[in-house]
Design a protein that fits this description.
The chain has 3 helices and 4 strands. It has 96 residues and is of the alpha+beta class. The two termini are 13 Å apart.
Amino acid sequence: MYGTVARIVLKPGMGEQFLALWREIDAQGFPGRVAEYLYRSDSDPDELFMTVVFASEEAYRRNAESPATDVSYRRLRELMVDDAEWHDGEVIFAHP
């Protein structure tokens, strides 16, 4: 398995709008996705952490390089202070 962890900082007051847009985009599906989580920080409600796990690095790369993913990210980006901070890597342990 392979995936990414991202730190996202929203513009003040954009939390609900971001979540609504996230749900809309998520409903389209991501081929090869195994799991996905979006966390809101306790210390700052405008700071989010996202994790997405894919069945393989290949599935992850196909998603990351997809033009549709770029369009979706640009829509989400309008609600962010800056670009998301991404950390990609191989999943070496998982406990369902």
